[in-house]
């Protein structure tokens, strides 16, 4: 009589158990990787990004969080010096760089959605004791303009001009301090950021700005080009557009005392929560 072993088919290749073990091992590696929250880095740039009760908040931080939450995508956000955020993205330690200005070099390293986080009016601030009325880059001849390291200033005539001096300081607060001390003549920054920071520092009476923007720019949530992260961009940009067209975005703007466009303001009362 044939034994039990004789009834089994001949073994040609890995056994079913070894295949199952290999599958389980692959799943054990894949699942935790998928469950890891996206790593987001930005610097303090109020009212767009700021620290509130130990949490990263602000217009763009709240907007990013809402969009990712709506898509079911977990994330962790940190506030760090901008150069450190850039270095982390370049070293592959980051998934999203929040509030990045676009330039071609960055576009080779990161994937930029079609929808920006915010439109930015870049203006020149001056000390009220030493006003400099400037309406264009051409009028900056001989002046010292406070800038911040690692920023991609989107106007080529400003970024590359040689008829004035761009002088870095570690932060906008430091730049405003230099402005009051007369160590720079002007400071360039986003209008909302400058006004918010001046008020926060109690400098709103000592600092004013040229009403005509030097130029306008946009900031983005720039995604890593790692395939699994870059693949999220189409869904993210669609959700971002949807939110910005509705009442949730208006409420975020109102929370940080920013003007609300008429297209969204009228929806705040009629939306269903």
Automatic annotation (TrEMBL):
It comes from the Bacteria. The lineage of its organism: Bacteria, Pseudomonadati, Pseudomonadota, Gammaproteobacteria, Pseudomonadales. The keyword Transmembrane helix does not apply. The keyword Signal applies. Residues 1-35 form the signal peptide. This is Transporter substrate-binding domain-containing protein. InterPro entries: Solute-binding_3/MltF_N. Belongs to the bacterial solute-binding protein 3 family. Keywords: Signal. Residues 37-260 form the Solute-binding protein family 3/N-terminal domain. It comes from Pseudomonas xionganensis.
């Amino acid at each position: 009589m044939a034994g039990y072993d004789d009834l089994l088919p001949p073994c040609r290749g890995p056994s079913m158990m070894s295949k199952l073990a290999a599958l389980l091992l692959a799943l054990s590696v894949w699942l935790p990787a998928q469950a890891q929250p996206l790593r987001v880095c930005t610097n303090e740039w109020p009212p767009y990004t700021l620290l509130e009760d130990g949490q990263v908040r602000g217009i763009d931080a709240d907007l990013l969080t809402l969009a990712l939450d709506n898509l079911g995508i977990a994330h962790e956000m940190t506030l760090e010096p901008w150069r450190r955020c850039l270095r982390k993205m370049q070293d592959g330690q980051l998934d999203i760089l929040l509030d990045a200005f676009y330039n071609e070099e960055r576009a080779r390293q990161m994937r930029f959605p079609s929808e920006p986080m915010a439109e930015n009016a870049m203006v020149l601030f001056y000390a009220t004791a030493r006003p400099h009325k400037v309406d264009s880059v051409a009028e900056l001849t001989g002046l010292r303009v406070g800038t911040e390291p690692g920023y991609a200033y989107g106007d080529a005539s400003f970024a590359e001009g040689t008829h004035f001096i761009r002088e870095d300081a570690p932060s906008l607060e430091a730049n405003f301090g230099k402005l009051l001390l007369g160590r720079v003549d002007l400071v360039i920054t986003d209008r909302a950021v400058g006004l918010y920071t001046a008020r926060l520092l109690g400098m709103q009476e000592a600092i004013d700005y040229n009403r005509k923007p030097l130029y306008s720019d946009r900031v983005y949530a720039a995604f890593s080009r790692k395939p699994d992260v870059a693949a999220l961009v189409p869904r993210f940009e669609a959700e971002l557009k949807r939110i910005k067209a509705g009442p949730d975005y208006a409420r975020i703007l109102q929370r940080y005392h920013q003007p609300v466009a008429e297209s969204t303001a009228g929806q705040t009362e009629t939306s269903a929560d």
